[in-house]
Automatic annotation (TrEMBL):
GO terms for molecular function: ATP binding; DNA binding; helicase activity; hydrolase activity. GO terms for cellular component: cytosol. The keyword Transmembrane helix does not apply. It holds the Pfam family Helicase_C. This is ATP-dependent helicase IRC3. SUPFAM superfamilies: P-loop containing nucleoside triphosphate hydrolases (SSF52540). Residues 249-393 form the Helicase C-terminal domain. Residues 22-158 form the Helicase ATP-binding domain. It comes from Marinospirillum alkaliphilum DSM 21637. PANTHER family: ATP-DEPENDENT HELICASE IRC3-RELATED, TYPE I RESTRICTION ENZYME ECOKI R PROTEIN. Keywords: ATP-binding, Helicase, Hydrolase, Nucleotide-binding.
Length: 594
């Protein structure tokens, strides 16, 4: 695949282009390419724009990316317009237009043309599901003019804070990754960062956790938006006395380095850091810096007239300086996405400086694994880790948040449904039906997601847990136990037979019990169906206790329900009828359940 200007795309860039062509020949569903920073997304965009038969609009969120993508297309010897107020140009007449999303969304009448057949969105993880967002306004406008519009996103980090993956399924992995309502329907091609480094397309990252000389951001809690408050981050750094030591450490480690980028927690913090560095070698960039002054500083840094570039959240994307070989992180990052974007500034190859690696100095205790992406749900707790759980139905290797034993066995996971994507003989497909956790429809007996309101099998309304509790509380012969703990005992029943006794208790010591036999295969199967499948912390992981003693010894593997509802069978005995798990209703507090 040779360009008109003689550029030869790398093999993986050719594969990415072919994946796009193949997808859009068969579908108009929005699709996504996941390519690491430095993989040459601009060249892929340029090739696709060159091959397109209709008009093409390429959007980005910052003027640096608009300019960069336009420059790569111009290098093909082809002409294209730029529509960006920040670049002082608002042209939209040529076949291909490179624009900023803010400028285009404010001038949609300039794009009243049904001939637009391809919309390309760089850094597409920024596309929100909110219909009034700038990206969605442009998308809806062009789709109204051309319902067959092809929408392609490109990003190095295909996940969004608070949402997880921004696409529904992964074509290469045959897996479901994001929610059903994700705008991008599929990731059609992905290159892992580790592969790019191993193949020599990106430089090797060397991460050092500077635990002995670091700020303590551990008590910070993200705001409702999911981001840390700049004022709270500033309070942490200002109350600490380590900044001079950190800056001195950076300078020492940067002795043989060519380009140093320092990411700070606040403007005041950045000003302090810049003031401790050699003034003739240092520049400071914040969001308030005028555009022309910012461009002058970036040109000087790229020309290596400056060694230290200090900034506050403005150079995480769209900035290309291949000679950068040291990145100092003096702020916490809310997500692995931001963490990877920051490190990506230093992973490009730099033959001019013979860069062998990029040193990442983390002075903020960030917990993220550079090589591992976020997954569809937020990390439930600090001690959670990614665990692999094979689906008992289709064998797909799912990745969920969870916990393991010291031997590495999965002790708990928070997966609900298998992520495997199953292709049919006709070429269509769907997500594997196996559910690790579910609620049962009382109308048809089918399994539904624990948060579902309607049965996916018979469309019956699923009975609300609050309604079950309310009805039980109104019955004279019913008991509702708000469970605070559970015990398992291998014992003998009244007839001297070995049994497993399961006892649920509340904070006041009130108890309700169940008894199970595990002597025969049929009894063990019934135990798994009635008890284990709901109580296991790691359903589907193959733990099958063969005796009451083994079950009692494995109580660490079990969770207790939030509520137990029982009915009286005689003057002394109660029979448990329902157990409610994953409860989020209005009876969560103890006083509400009485």
């Amino acid at each position: 695949m040779q360009s008109t200007a003689g550029f030869q795309l790398r093999p993986y860039q050719q594969d990415a282009v072919q994946a796009v062509l193949q997808w859009f020949r068969a579908s108009s569903d929005p699709a996504l390419l996941s390519l690491p920073t430095g993989a040459g997304k601009s060249l892929v965009i340029a090739e696709l724009a060159r091959l397109a038969r209709g008009r093409v609009l390429v959007l980005a969120h910052v003027q640096e990316l608009v300019e960069q993508n336009h420059a790569k297309y111009a290098a093909y010897g082809l002409q294209a317009d730029i529509f960006s107020a920040g670049l002082g140009l608002k042209q939209a007449e040529r076949q291909v237009v490179f624009g900023s999303v803010q400028s285009v969304s404010r001038h949609l009448p300039r794009f009243d043309d049904e001939r637009f057949t391809l919309l390309v969105i760089d850094e597409c993880h920024r596309v929100s599901l909110e219909k009034d967002s700038a990206y969605q306004q442009v998308i809806q406008h062009l789709q109204q003019l051309n319902p067959q519009l092809k929408v392609l996103g490109l990003t190095a980090t295909p996940y969004r804070l608070g949402q997880g993956f921004v696409y529904h399924r992964h074509l290469q992995q045959q897996a479901v990754r994001g929610d059903e309502n994700c705008f991008f329907r599929a990731c059609i091609y992905e290159l892992p960062l580790r592969w790019m480094v191993r193949k020599g397309y990106l430089t090797t990252p060397l991460r050092m956790d500077m635990a002995m000389l670091a700020y303590d951001f551990s008590m910070l809690v993200p705001t409702a938006s999911g981001y840390f408050s700049e004022s709270e981050m500033d309070q942490v750094v200002q109350s600490s006395r380590v900044t001079p030591g950190i800056v001195a450490d950076i300078q020492q480690r940067a002795t043989s380095r060519h380009g140093v980028m320092i990411f700070c927690a606040s403007v005041r913090h950045a000003e302090e850091v810049a003031g401790l560095l050699p003034s003739e070698q240092t520049a400071l960039i914040t969001g308030a810096l005028p555009g022309k002054e910012r461009e002058q500083i970036l040109r000087a840094f790229k020309a290596q007239e400056l060694k230290y570039l200090v900034n506050v959240s403005v150079l995480t994307t769209g900035f290309d300086a291949p000679h950068v070989d040291l990145i100092a992180l003096l702020r916490p990052t809310e997500s692995v996405s931001l963490y990877q974007q920051i490190l990506g500034r230093g992973l490009r190859l730099s033959p001019d400086t013979a860069k062998a690696d990029c040193l990442l100095l983390d002075y903020a205790g960030n917990p993220w694994d550079l090589w591992a992406p976020e997954i569809s749900s937020p990390r439930p707790s600090r001690d959670s880790q990614l665990v692999q759980v094979n689906c008992p139905a289709c064998g797909f290797a799912n990745t969920f948040w969870g916990r393991t034993t010291t031997d590495g066995d999965v002790l708990e996971h928070f997966g609900r449904r298998c992520q495997g994507w199953l292709e049919s003989d006709t070429g269509s497909g769907g997500q594997c039906d196996f559910r690790f956790r579910f609620r049962v429809c009382e109308a048809c007996g089918g399994e539904a997601d624990i948060a579902a309101r309607v049965c996916p099998h018979c469309d019956a309304t699923l009975v609300d847990a609050d309604r079950k509790l309310k009805e039980a509380l109104q019955l004279k012969d019913a008991r509702v136990l708000r469970v605070s703990g559970m015990t398992l005992d291998a014992t003998l029943n009244g007839r001297g037979l070995p049994r497993l006794k399961v006892t649920y208790h509340d904070e006041d010591g009130t108890e309700l019990s169940d008894w199970y036999a595990l002597e025969t295969a049929a009894q063990r199967y019934a135990f798994e169906q009635v008890f284990l499948r709901d109580h296991l912390k790691a359903p589907g992981c193959g733990w099958h206790p063969a005796s009451a003693e083994e079950a009692a010894a494995g109580i660490e593997r079990l969770r207790h329900p939030d509520f137990v509802i029982a009915r009286k069978v005689d003057r002394r005995h109660w029979r448990i009828q329902q157990r409610l798990f994953d409860y989020q209703g209005r009876f969560r507090k103890a006083e509400a359940a009485h």
